[in-house]
């Protein structure tokens, strides 16, 4: 079949085949880029704020834990006790705010 074809026809078919492969790879690449863009957007807009809120919650839990440990010191001055209670209250408020945002 190919023996009877002219050289120009053979070259036209082979370059056409290479062009078809290149176009199909380009279409697949574009489709992959569009899908990746959607996934990256979803991660940035949906999942990342939740992770940030969880980090805030973790930090506040550690602050509360630290303040509670400080309250166990027997000979601490009364002002220092009140500072620790204030720290616990402010951390608790921040914890609740981050928890509410994470639930959305």
Can you describe this structure?
The chain is an all-alpha fold. The chain has two domains: 10-39; 47-104. The chain is 87% helix and 0% strand. The protein is built from two helices and no strands. Helix 1 runs antiparallel to helix 2 (78-102). It is rod-shaped and about 105 Å long.
Summarize the structure.
The chain is built from two helices and no strands. With 104 residues, the chain is mostly helical.
Which percent band covers the strand fraction?
A: under 5%
Can you summarize the main beta sheet? none
The secondary structure category is mainly alpha
- The residue-averaged pLDDT reads 90
Helical run tally: 2
User: For the CA atoms, what is the radius of gyration?
Assistant: 32 Å
- Into which percent range does the helicity of residues fall? over 70%
Total domain units: 2
Low-confidence sequence ranges: none
Shape annotation: rod-shaped
H and E string: HH
Intertermini distance: 67 Å
Number of strands: 0
Descriptors:
104 residues; mainly alpha
Secondary structure topology:
Blueprint: H1 7-71, H2 78-102
Helix pairs in contact: 1-2
């Amino acid at each position: 079949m190919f023996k009877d074809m002219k050289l120009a026809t053979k070259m036209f078919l082979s370059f056409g085949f290479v062009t078809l492969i290149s176009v199909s790879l380009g279409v697949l690449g574009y489709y992959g880029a569009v899908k990746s863009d959607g996934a990256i957007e979803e991660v940035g807009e949906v999942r990342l704020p939740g992770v940030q809120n969880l980090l805030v919650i973790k930090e506040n839990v550690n602050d509360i834990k630290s303040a509670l440990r400080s309250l166990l010191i027997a000979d601490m001055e009364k002002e220092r006790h009140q500072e620790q209670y204030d720290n616990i209250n402010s951390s608790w408020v921040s914890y609740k705010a981050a928890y509410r945002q994470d639930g959305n």
